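Box 3.1. Reading complex inputs
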Amino acid sequence: DTEVTQTPKHLVMGMTNKKSLKCEQHMGHRAMYWYKQKAKKPPELMFVYSYEKLSINESVPSRFSPECPNSSLLNLHLHALQPEDSALYLCASSQEGRGLGEQFFGPGTRLTVL
Amino acid sequence: KQEVTQIPAALSVPEGENLVLNCSFTDSAIYNLQWFRQDPGKGLTSLLLIQSSQREQTSGRLNASLDKSSGRSTLYIAASQPGDSATYLCAVHSGGGADGLTFGKGTHLIIQP
């Protein structure tokens, strides 16, 4: 099974809302990632968890808060977002960090901030 | 900072043609390079992974090569089909503590029936 699942598929939220994006993989991977992709742009790395510890935070605003409850789950908590945060949020996983494994991506959550 | 460039930005060819997509990167200190396809509004599908010690990888009608010293990779698609229409993204996994992928802007490919 090489599947990464993400929920919800679509999310519309106001600037004062609090919401969470969820990502799950059952491939036994120990590294998980959040990427943000704006329309007609390539994905950009936001966060990396390796062995359930945050190893990379690419200077993402604090209104985005990642959480890795266990090695199979990754959440992205959203609070007080701005309209410019509207994008496709992609989750990925790999066997381990440090570039040794193929990254597998989920289908993404399409986020619209009103 | 690693930069990845893909040429051409867009390509439209008749069905059945063989084609080559190009990717270049500025820092040759990479762990691996990965090619993806992305259909409109969808996630990324991994096509091929080439480790830094490898020269090429093949999967079906796809062949990817890597010349790490010159910072280049090519994706060769044989006997193209309309179902190959998608955006193809090249991404490199660099060292220096950067665990994520750095992507090129992609090649938007259209295969005409």
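In summary: The interface with chain A takes residues 30-32, 34, 36, 41-46, 49, 89, 91, 93-95, 97-106 of chain B (CB under 8 Å).
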